[in-house]
Amino acid sequence: MRVFAFVGPSGTGKSYRAQMVAGEHNISYIIDDGLLVKDNQVIAGESAKKAPTKIETVKHAIFIDKQERENMQKAIKKYKPESILILGTSDGMVAKIAENLKLPKIEKTIYIQEVATENEMNTAQTIRRTQGKHVIPVPTFEIKKDFSGYILDPLQIFKSKGNGKKPYISEKSIIRPTFSYLGNFTISDTVFRQMIEYIAKKTEGIARVARTRIENVEEGPSIYIEVVVYYGYTVIEVLQEFKAKCIKEIEKLTTMGIQKITVIAKSIEVRREE
């Protein structure tokens, strides 16, 4: 495996340019802030940007935790990348990541100054410092569950590399980590209820939703649902199916990870003949 590094101070635009640098060196796999990314898709890891403090962020990013380290090592063994690009804020940091993950020594290091102007880096740092915005080099839908409540927006990039060269197109996600959280992302309880009622209509055996209660906090919603089940169905199976659908669809549509969901059969109803 060939190992490359992309190094630059925090907030200078490494994640923003990671896929471009990887593409120019024919690298399909990127390690960035605890995530293993392949071709715009997160395939392993948990983002360090979820950590509550900057110190914890660094610990996640360099895989101090034994379980996180072993999970990433298993993923690398599974996918067997021919080459991989490690992002870090210093030579020491990327070397430590390679060491902790038992990767070969870094073959080549690309520095942010080689791919970004001084003005671009200063602008990126100003945005980081004043707005708390970070970029993750994957599409927003890839990280919705991991960033419950504080994804800001997707960022699409199209850049030409010159005549005859393949254009660089990618989608990234802008987020505010919890340690620099400057705003709220909320969805009304009515929206949750409407989604739950829609899912109920699409679930065989559910007659209707009798009651819902939503507790919406920064970490994600806790949901309590009472339903009426049609006579003739196995109640437990119907509730389990409905619960699984609610978790999947709500997380997909709202970007929020559900903290807890309770589904109770309030009553049984005989289906009327059409």
Query: Shape, please?
Result: elongated
Number of strands: 12
Poorly predicted ranges = 135-161, 167-184
Distance between the termini: 64 Å
Q: Count structural domains.
A: 2
Quickly count the helices. 7
Provide the helix percentage: 25-40%
The major pleated sheet works out as: 6 strands, mixed
Give a verbal description of the structure.
By secondary structure, this protein is an alpha/beta fold. The protein folds into two domains: 2-180, no CATH class; 189-269, Cation efflux protein, cytoplasmic domain (Alpha-Beta Plaits, 2-Layer Sandwich). It has helices at residues 14-24, 54-61, 66-79, 91-100, 118-131, 189-201, 235-254; strands spanning 2-7, 29-32, 35-38, 41-45, 83-88, 108-111, 134-136, 151-159, 168-175, 206-217, 220-230, 260-269. The chain has a six-stranded mixed beta sheet, with helices on both faces. Strands 7-9-8 form a three-stranded antiparallel beta sheet. α6 (189-201) packs across α7.
Descriptive key words:
single chain; six-stranded mixed β-sheet; elongated; 7 helices; three-stranded antiparallel β-sheet; 274 residues; alpha/beta; Alpha-Beta Plaits; 30% strand
State the gist of this model.
The protein folds into two domains: 179 residues, no CATH class; 81 residues, Alpha-Beta Plaits, CATH 3.30.70.1350. 33% of the residues lie in helices and 30% in strands. The protein is built from seven helices and twelve strands.
